[in-house]
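User: Predict the complex with nicotinamide-adenine-dinucleotide.
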Amino acid sequence: MTDAPRDAREIGVGLISVGWMGRLHSRAYTNVPQVYPDLGLRPRLVQAADTAEAGRAYARDVLGYASTTADYHEVLANPEVEVVSICAPNFLHAEIGIAAAKAGKPFWIEKPVGRGEADTAAVRDAAIEAGVATTIGFNYRHPPAIQLARKLVDEGALGTITNVRGRFFGGFNADPNAPRAWRFVREQSGSGVLGDLMGHLVDLVHFLLGPIGAVTASTGTFIHERPGVPGSPDEGKLLPVENEDYANLLIRFDETALASTALGTLDASWIAVGPKAEYAIEIFGTNGSLRWNFERMNELELAVREADGSVGYRRLLADATFPEFSRFQPSAGTPMGYDDLKTIEANKFLLAATGRPSDTSNIHDALASAQVLTAAEESAASGQWVATPVIEGSTANIRTGGDAR
Ligand SMILES: NC(=O)c1ccc[n+]([C@@H]2O[C@H](COP(=O)([O-])OP(=O)(O)OC[C@H]3O[C@@H](n4cnc5c(N)ncnc54)[C@H](O)[C@@H]3O)[C@@H](O)[C@H]2O)c1
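Assistant: Here is the predicted structure with nicotinamide-adenine-dinucleotide placed in the model:
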């Protein structure tokens, strides 16, 4: 691998919120010139905003931002900031996303974009009006095994897709003594596991198989109270959890979807005891099936009916035949990691932000996912199927002429 060309253009980066995702976005910007020297850009970490002094200190002293501020508006007004990462808690996404668009700054924003469909639609409208490029933190699109899966589905290797089964099971909120942080408060987070994990799974299904056309769902909360955040005025109190821990969806696809006649079941939990990041998807077709699990991100299991009628799963381990893999590792089977997914995402964002062709996710994809989640909440309340019309501009996998399968 070569380094970025010496004449790579510097591009000024602004960061809003220096939590887990803010730090990860920053590492991705730093990695991009080495992994994608052909991008011709060298991100410069210009300014970071966080209301917490600890976040600002980390941005300045560890990540190397040239300056920091408690007020994100300063980042958006900074003329040296050309692109912005928005990594704030969900309740701030709408106001920050709209402000970024109005400031004319392309933005890479974490999912879910806001607390629900209305927040996401407002950000979408502002981005369209300003004509700024957007990328969403839908990082589970990027593992080379998933990109290979999409290629296999597109080529018809599985035949006609009959059904999809997805489960995104995490245990990060399984401890009932974990504090009631912003994620459990409706005003700050919107939905619970729907926005947190199901939003990723819905986007992954859109990416692999096409737009979901209708949904019915049920949701449940199983840990009803959690202790107040230590050091906050709520320390020592038990407070109500205001959103769901678990959700399951039955889905049908839109007629334009690559898998238009398929059916599916998707479920997500953030209180699963056992699975830690079991973000898994299985796709079945008339000629074969495939399955992937983020806990074994570098593997794809594939079963395709052979000419003699035999069938069985083969475990494909990532190597140079997997899309993007050679960017990261020269040696077959050497595992890639989660950070690498964000480096792939950063490259797609910077391509789009500098007006070049990019297969990045975008704000329309965020709205498509949010719409399904809102429909799921409506369905969980009413018991009815709810339609989810196609969102124009999304990059969901649609049929491109004829009934190819
Ligand atoms: N793509 C993924 O896989 C993934 C994973 C985790 C989180 N996320 C998303 O990323 C977003 C952030 O999550 P996180 O885990 O990094 O959160 P976090 O709690 O680690 O960090 C949030 C940060 O925001 C700061 N903040 C709060 N109010 C602010 C304000 N007014 N201005 C500036 N900063 C402010 C906090 O001080 C904190 O540093 C969420 O939307 C979450 O859903 C995405």
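The mean pLDDT is 96.
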